[in-house]
């Protein structure tokens, strides 16, 4: 895992199409795969929409089988969601943003580092969306060990 930067940013809300997932956060991959396949079938990739993972519960406080998350695709084209999908707007406002390069196995460690940095700076958390914004892959997207460039976004009161 590599930390590229950390800073406070004022982020705009992001209108998305989302697929909800309930269960361990690591299990959201299937929702992303379904969303990506749907985007491809609807020729949405040409517009370069961003993808994000929104995590609604604290995994230290909520049992893994009850964790709620959403796999999101930025809705640039204004298309209607497909079956099993919904419109979802990721909250905007003041955020602590840590940009990292991580492999699939390092996401938990990245969130831990972001939470530690957040607390060390004395920031106060609020209840808006906690999310990962995926900026791209620093390698072959088919390689499970290729690092992804991700912004971990934690809302600040």
Describe the structure.
The structure is a single chain. This protein is α+β, with helices and mostly antiparallel strands. The chain has two helices and eight strands. The two termini are 28 Å apart.
Main sheet: strands, sense, barrel: 8 strands, antiparallel
What is the CA–CA distance across the termini? 28 Å
The secondary-structure element order is EEHEEEEHEE
Helical content band: 10-25%
What portion of residues belong to β-strands? 35-45%
Secondary structure class reads: alpha+beta
Uncertain runs are none
Order the strands across the largest sheet as they lie in space: 1-6-8-7-3-4-2-5
Regarding quaternary structure, what we see is single chain
Number of beta-strand segments? 8
User: C-alpha Rg, in Å?
Assistant: 15 Å
* Overall spatial form: globular
Arithmetic mean of pLDDT = 94
Count of helical regions: 2
